[in-house]
Amino acid sequence: MRHASCHSTRACRTCGRPAWRRLPMKRFAMLACAAALAVAGCGSKSPTNPSNAPTIFTVAISSQNEVPPISNADANARGQAIITFNITKDSAGNVTAATATFNVTLSGFPAGTNIILAHIHNAPAGTNGGVKVNTGLTAGTAVVLTDGTGVLNASNIAVEPSLMQDILTNPQNYYFNAHSTLNPGGAVRGQLR
Length: 193
Hints:
With 193 residues, this protein is mainly beta. The protein folds into two domains: 4-41, no CATH class; 55-191, Immunoglobulin-like (Sandwich). Helices cover 13% and strands 36% of the residues. The strands form two sheets. Strands 4, 5, 6, 8 and 9 form a five-stranded antiparallel beta sheet that branches. The protein has a four-stranded antiparallel beta sheet with strand order 1-2-3-7. The longest helix has 17 residues, at 25-41. The termini are far apart.
């Protein structure tokens, strides 16, 4: 039997029970359920359905970013490369497949310039690195910049999953560049960011 004095914060004057012993079992059960829900809510930092949304890099490219900077007729060349990666990830967030689409606008080249190659290379700013993602452009399929401006497009270019993961993790260690006939080592360049 509960006494009116059992509701106080001190010991009951009638039965002498301490206040902590008078908590109803319902309160204890509710606290236990809340604790269990809180623990159940704590899980992996990885989402169960990682985003497969495209990742887009917008890269300002310039002849002055090449190593060494271009000083011949291509010296004023510039442009922008929009590189869209379509990525598939597993439930742990690991890249399992990827493709790249390149949309590149170029300007400031001499009229009639041929763009013969375009790639993503691995190297930080100020150094040159090897080709990692090739757009498929060749001297035989060159883009001719009739008036010194033009557009280069390439789509559905396969990207190795481990390479894609590294690009996502360390984009500053990769750059895009386009090569001209006059500058076959690279005419315009910009780091991924």
